[in-house]
Every structure is written in C-alpha cells, then in structure tokens.
Amino acid sequence: MLSEGLFYDIMRQALWIAVITSVPILAVALISGLVVGLFQALTSVQEMTLTFVPKLIAIVIVFWMSMGFMTQTLVTFFTRTLVPLIAGGR
Predict the structure, then answer these.
(1) Rounded Cα gap, residues 50 and 61, in angstroms
(2) How does DSSP assign 19-80, residue by residue?
(3) pLDDT tens, residue by residue, 3-25
(4) What residues contact residue 31 under an 8 Å CB cut-off, 6+ apart?
(5) How far apart, in Å, do the first and last CA atoms of the chain sit?
(6) CA distances from residue 46 to 33, 36, 40, 43, 72 in whole angstroms, order as listed
(7) pTM to 2 decimals?
(8) Which helix (H) or strand (E) holds 84?
(9) Closest alpha carbon to 21 in 83, 63, 50, 84
(10) Average pLDDT, stretch 67-74?
(11) Chain CA centroid to CA 42, Å
C-alpha cells in the first residue's frame, strides 16, 4: 500500500514530466500564433484557415522532432518509478 507522502511525490513527478514534455509543443503554438496574428494585423487579412494551418503544421513538425525526447522521458519515469511500485519493489 502506498503511503500518502509517496503518492503525492509520484503525482508531483508525473505533473512535472507532463509540463516538461508539453513545453516544446505549447511554445511553438504560442510563437506561431503570435506570428500569424501579427501578420494578420499588419495585412488586414482575416482568413480563418490562415490561423489554423500554419499553427497545425508547426505543431506537427515540433511533435515529430521532439517525439524521441517525450518517449524517453515517459519510459524513464515509468521504469524507474511506476514499474517497481507495480511489481511491489518499493
């Protein structure tokens, strides 16, 4: 049975890993949204697909590039923290 302190420590680690793995995608979405919004404000072009398509392309590219980092981070967390708990090692 997990103690309350151990449970909260694992939850803290899991939330921190969620933040770390989502930062690249969220940062690119923010930057591309700002660039497209600035472009729209400067040119007075209010096309709906202009806001969606470049942001989607940027997010897909960054996700593809950072997929290895995200996978390795999650695998490390599971093998070091959760698998020993499931197996009864802690």
Answers:
(1) 17
(2) HHHHHHHHHHHHHHHHHHHHHHHHHT---HHHHHHHHHHHHHHHHHHHHHHHHHHHHHHIII
(3) 899 999 999 999 999 999 999 99
(4) 58
(5) 10
(6) 14, 10, 6, 9, 40
(7) 0.79
(8) helix 83-87
(9) 63
(10) 96
(11) 31
Specify the length of the chain in residues. Answer: 90
Q: Which amino acid is at 71?
A: T
Matching residue, tokens 């969220």: 26
Signed CA dihedral, 72, 73, 76, 78: sign only: negative
Residue 17, amino acid: I
Helices 4-43/48-77 angle, 10° precision: 160
